[in-house]
Amino acid sequence: MPEASPIASGRLRWLWLALAHASLGLALLGVFLPGLPTTEFVLLSAWAASRSSPRLSRWLENHRLLGPTLRDWRNGGVIARRRKWMASLSMALAFAVLTTTLRHWPSLLCIGLGMLCGVIWIWSRPERRP
Q: What are the extents of the domains in the chain?
């Protein structure tokens, strides 16, 4: 297990805590809004919580749904195959929606290339702990 992050003090702690809560809120929105990433915001929340709130950090680590993903990530950058498929299909759905609503092809091209890079990176991650 990686070494625990030092807890910040004073105002910096409150900034990390605000970031942890804001990113957790965005992750929750990402469950319902296609195109808004969920996993990335959960990871950001866990990282910020580890610097500001041991209680929130423990809650995230022990959460029934979020905990396994966080533990896998912390122990080797693992992304389970099921999550890879979910992320890939979510991006494909979001891009399909964009192609029907956005007519500016340079924007579509940039968004599509960004999503493609994301999919390639996700699939390059290991699926099991080393």
A: 10-74, 81-124
Burial per residue of 86-117, b for 16 or more beta-carbon CB atoms within 10 angstroms, e otherwise? ebeebbeebbeebeeeeeeeeeeeebeeebee
| CA–CA distance, 82 with 128 (Å, rounded to integer) | 12
pLDDT tens sequence across 38-62: 888 998 999 999 999 999 999 999 9
Q: Tell me the CA distances in angstroms from 43 to 61, 66, 78, one per residue in order.
A: 11, 9, 12
pTM, whole model, 2 decimals? Answer: 0.72
Per 3-state DSSP, what percentage of the chain is helix, strand, and coil (rounded to 5)? 70, 0, 30
Percent of the chain with pLDDT over 70: 94
List the one residue out of 96, 79, 98 whose CA is nearest residue 38.
79
